[in-house]
Design goal:
The protein is of the alpha/beta class. The protein has one domain: 3-Layer(aba) Sandwich (Rossmann fold), CATH 3.40.50.2300. Helices cover about 45% and strands about 20% of the residues. The protein has nine helices and eleven strands. It has a six-stranded mixed β-sheet. Strands 1-9-8 form a three-stranded antiparallel β-sheet. Strands 10-11 form a two-stranded antiparallel ribbon. β5, α4 and β6 form a beta-alpha-beta unit.
């Protein structure tokens, strides 16, 4: 077992426990752009997946990857992290809008990882935008998505018009990504489905920005400003992920297709 496999194995063992724990229902506090997490309560993020439509084959591994990222970075200033899972079926605008409304209705959700597909996500993004809730997709590639969430939309996958298909085809050849996929396969008995690595990175980016922007108040509560969190995600620059170096265009939220970075990761 390689060192990376051993690390992921320990992380995954803890992640399995988290899957069962995720059904707990934390209490809700805070409204508006500022979220206050009382001492003893978890920080809440949402995962907008797809269990009922054509994105379903990718849903489980994407969620597992999110949980692995959380277990690798299990707290924000000592506060544990709870994942609220919502079903946002690919290509179903009505259901996707309802999923986004459910996410923002919980005023403790500080950010979202997802949605899986561009279709329907474009309809849901204005809901996230109106609430100021940052969202990071690891699989939605449509070029027009930034206009629907001008300050809250981000992605760890390269957009179609930026050469997304060719870029995506290179990921399995990168040593770091290959090692991550291999470790995942050793643990689960089969390789991860496409996009799982990108969702690991999406969750990692969100957690990194949470650590940057959250602060502990005088009474021991954790304070998260959603607007500050969204701005920090947009400032992601040169962050090393399993899918190579991640830089997000601050004007659009798109991941920058950086051939020089890919060349370095391939070396």
């Amino acid at each position: 077992m390689t060192e990376l496999t051993a690390i992921v194995a320990s992380v995954f063992s803890a992640a399995v426990l988290l899957v069962g724990a995720a059904s707990a229902s934390p209490r809700h506090f805070g409204t508006g752009t500022q979220v206050v997490v009382p001492r003893g309560q978890p920080v809440q993020i949402a995962f907008a997946g797809d269990t009922t439509s054509f994105g379903a084959p990718f849903d489980l591994n994407a969620l597992q990857a999110v949980r692995l990222a959380i277990v690798a970075h299990p707290t924000v200033h000592g506060f544990p992290i709870h994942v609220n899972v919502v079903d946002a079926p690919c290509g179903d605008p009505t259901a996707d809008v309802a999923a986004a409304q459910a996410v923002v209705a919980n005023t403790q959700n500080v950010g979202v990882v997802g949605q899986l597909c561009s279709g329907g996500f474009d309809q849901a993004l204005p809901v996230y935008q109106a609430a100021g809730v940052v969202v990071i997709s690891g699989s939605a590639t449509n070029d027009a998505l930034p206009q629907d969430g001008p300050t809250v939309f981000d992605r760890t996958i390269v957009a179609d018009g930026d050469g997304g298909d060719a870029w995506l085809a290179q990921l399995p050849t990168l040593p770091g990504d290959t090692a991550w996929r291999g470790a995942f396969a050793d643990l689960l008995g089969s390789p991860p489905t496409d996009f799982a690595d990108l969702y690991y990175d999406a969750a990692s980016v969100l957690l990194r920005s949470l650590r940057h922007t959250a602060s502990v108040g005088w009474n021991g509560s954790l304070v998260v400003d959603r607007a500050a969190l969204a701005r920090d995600v947009r400032r992601t620059n040169g962050v090393r992920g399993v899918t190579c170096t991640i830089t997000i265009d601050p004007a659009t939220g798109n991941r920058v297709n950086d051939p020089k970075s890919l060349a370095r990761c391939a070396g």
